[in-house]
Amino acid sequence: MGVFTLLRALFKRPRRPLPSALPELVTEYRLDSLPLDDIARYRSAFGFSGEQVPLTWWYLLAQRAHLATMLEPAFPFRIVGLVHMDNALEEIGTAVPGQPLLIRTVLRVLPPSSSGALRCVLETTGTADGVPVFSCASTYLIRRGSRGGTKPAEPEVTSPGTLIAQWTLDTAAGRRYARLSGDWNPIHLAGWSARLMGMRAPIIHGMHTLGACCASFERTEDRSVVRLACSFRRPITLGSTVQCIRIGENTFVVRASGNLVITGSLLLYTRAY
């Protein structure tokens, strides 16, 4: 996210009055070739081995497509304040270095929930010469519902699980990930910038946590994560100690400072090199 794009996102204003219904918004852009140096830096930062593209790196492409779609005039909501709720990623094929990718995103605004909460889902696919490479579906909360509405139940986690990895976030973790991802949202960078955006403290990017979890699973299992789905339950403030815990064969949770912050599932695949 460049400075100009960030400023457009920060200062975009909602349309008044809001339309009663929104059509699907579809955007496409072409990536001439994979940024291999950027991917290598991403692998190194999280400790991914091998030469393949980590599954969570594909989200970086999808996120840029998401932002471009939400900056379209037809999307009538502010971007600042949207909350990333759920994410699903899948590796479908492979992209050859130097091969162009077509990134296509479809944005749908979902019907309001019983509490009046409003969400949108962005479905992004990447294809190379018409062959699918990855897919990403992200759900964002646009507007919170009334307190009297029905609140989704917290998942019950009864098993203590197996600790896969533990790490502590220092105060510069958000800035380091911003340099990797291009996501310079002020809520992730420093205390003063987070407070300007209405946050009590800076929080780490949700996809930073998932990148760290996937790399840890891959090191433990000596297999690659090819499918991932998660729900973000609470933000993780910088300075927290984070634990990635395996609950079942394909399920995991993330805890930070004693709180359940992410629930998820993944699929691991043994690659033939």
Protein model, in words:
- The chain has 273 residues and is of the alpha+beta class.
- The chain has 2 domains: 128 residues, Hotdog Thioesterase (Thiol Ester Dehydrase, Chain A); 115 residues, Thiol Ester Dehydrase, Chain A (Roll), CATH 3.10.129.10.
- The protein has 6 helices and 10 strands; from the N terminus they run αβααβββββαααββββ.
- The chain has a 10-stranded antiparallel β-sheet with strand order 1-3-4-5-2-7-10-9-8-6, covered by helices on one side.
- The two termini are 34 Å apart.
- The mean pLDDT is 88.
Secondary structure topology:
Elements: H1 3-11, E1 25-31, H2 36-46, H3 58-70, E2 83-91, E3 101-109, E4 118-128, E5 131-143, E6 162-168, H4 173-181, H5 191-196, H6 206-221, E7 224-232, E8 241-246, E9 251-256, E10 259-269
Antiparallel strand pairs: 1-3, 2-5, 2-7, 3-4, 4-5, 6-8, 7-10, 8-9, 9-10
The largest sheet has its strands arranged as: 1-3-4-5-2-7-10-9-8-6
Number of helical regions: 6
Task: Quote the CATH topology of the largest domain.
Answer: Thiol Ester Dehydrase, Chain A
> Could you say which overall geometry the principal axes of the C-alpha atoms support?
globular
The domain count comes to 2
Q: Name the CATH superfamily classification of the largest domain.
A: Hotdog Thioesterase
Instruction: Report mean pLDDT, rounded to a whole number.
Output: 88
- Percentage of residues assigned to helices: 10-25%
Order of helices and strands: HEHHEEEEEHHHEEEE
CATH hierarchy, class of the largest domain: Alpha Beta
Low-confidence stretches: none
